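INFO batch 0412 | record 1 of 1 | parsing
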Amino acid sequence: IVQGVVDLAVISGSEGIIADYKTGKFSNPQALQKYKEQLNIYVKAMEKSFNIKIKGTIIIGIEQGELFYI
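INFO prediction complete | emitting tokens
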């Protein structure tokens, strides 16, 4: 069982994107890989639940002020 909450989903028609907000510094490859796995779970859940295609995922680093396109 996996539990989580999508921070932001933008859906237009039958497509969408998912954004996830993160605090702290996490730009090392291991942390980004962990978050990539989390976003992949969100993608599968959103696509199945809403019958849409997720075209992209973004991590928003709040403290760093950076976007990471995953």
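INFO post-check: The radius of gyration is 12 Å.
INFO record closed
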